Amino acid sequence: MENTHQKTVIFAQGKSLPCIALLLTTVEETPQVISARVQGHLPEWLNGYLLRTGPGKFEFGKDKYNHWFDGMALLHQFKMEKGTVTYRSKFLQSDTYKANSVHDRIVISEFGTLALPDPCKNVFERFMSKFEKPAITDNTSVNYVQYKGDYYLSTETNFMNKVDIETLEKTEKVDWRKFIAVNGTTAHPHYDPDGTTYNMGNSYGKHGSCYNVIRVPPEKSDPGETIHGAQVICSIASEERMRPSYYHSFGMTRNYIIFIEQPLKMNLWKIISSKIRGKPFTDGISWEPQYNTRFHVVDKHTGQLLPGMYYSKPSFTFHQINAYEDQGCVVIDLCCYDDGRILEVYQLQNLRKTGKELDQVYNSVARSFPRRFVLPLHVNLNAPEGENLSPLSYSSASAVKQADGKIWYSYENLYPEDLEEEGGIEFPQINYGQFSGKKYQFFYGCGFRHLVGDSLIKVDVVNKTLMVWREDGFYPSEPVFVPVPGANKEDDGVILSVVITPNQNERNFLLVLDAKNFEELGRAEVPVQMPYGFHGTFVNI
Fold it and tell me: Of the residues 114, 187, 258, 440, which has the fewest C-beta atoms closer than 10 A?
């Protein structure tokens, strides 16, 4: 195991990367609770569920999925109680999963896989089926989200699946379109301290595409409610009517929503006609760096879009780290790529390559690095051109007014050079309950010296230092921060991560790190094969 305080200099380019195909292969579910073997010491106060989701089934019959994001959702539950740990997993019983299972083939298209016509139909029927309206998947495999105290599994379509977090059983399917006029939402909402939830979702109509800010009230007026009372509080018109930007998350401070319109474009004509053309949805998404990145700021109390045109150089982000307000500015920190073609790389055929071909795939991928942008909220029309409008002396990020009136943002790097040796960072997490929307010092993520995370990293954004946990041949999931009850220091807590390996002679395990010094406190091993997943959450019991 690598010491967290020592660094070994490695080449930035991947060489002789180990094959990870077994981490992206169909597994069996473990519906009955099993006990984990605990090594070390888990804090007595750590009582709750670590819930995770991600793809776990990549084929039905002879039909195979093409993209990592397409696999059927497998739900994982680690239950920690008084130093003991149990594990179970279940496939989400979505309508998509059940339909595919009944027909023993892929009958509903996913992000990167087009469902083919029923082979039992004749030639004419198969041809005509291309003109039928495609069914929308409810394979909600991306994240656990919370609305009004209930937990849902979410992806980026209009469907969510409500789940019982104790049994992992689906209890209800919810369609956003029955409540507000959106065609889908992100799987990364934000929460106010009172439980009010904010999200964003697109809508497509005769007037073009809009990015909508959504607010869901914190409490139920009836026990049977789901997202009743949801409202669109602001609609932002896309710069191009039929080519809106793809986005995966957004930022939020105490008073503002920050939406980033980036040059990863969705061609709606291509997406709408994908079934007729025999192409998956991904065929309609393209990286177009001739466009710059644009920032939009919305007052979340009034729903007003702040005036002004705010731009930076073309970049792509999956995940925002945190955002806060300071001296009349919004500060937003993002994990950024300089190239948005990352979605193309996550084809399963790429991830499952071996030898030099695997190295070539990895070396073609842009890395994600943490960057800070400072957005002055109220720019005087008479502000001088060419001067930095940011008043923040602690940040080198700048906001400069151009001759055409636009504000041009230049970012500050929030990391030391060491992070380049770690392959960049993704899956950022903070002490959300205490520091979301506030000035903060630490975030946690996965280092990427492979196509999936191969280390855990703690970043100090003030001093720009790193701590790293790594164990050769093992691949940790998104870190989840759990605070010590009553803690008053930002990093007073533990980091939870599910660590898996393609080595069948080794066991996968739940890792518990001290968030302060990044030293291992304990691990809980389970004799179960697990695929590499996406996101999760911790729920106290």
Answer: 114
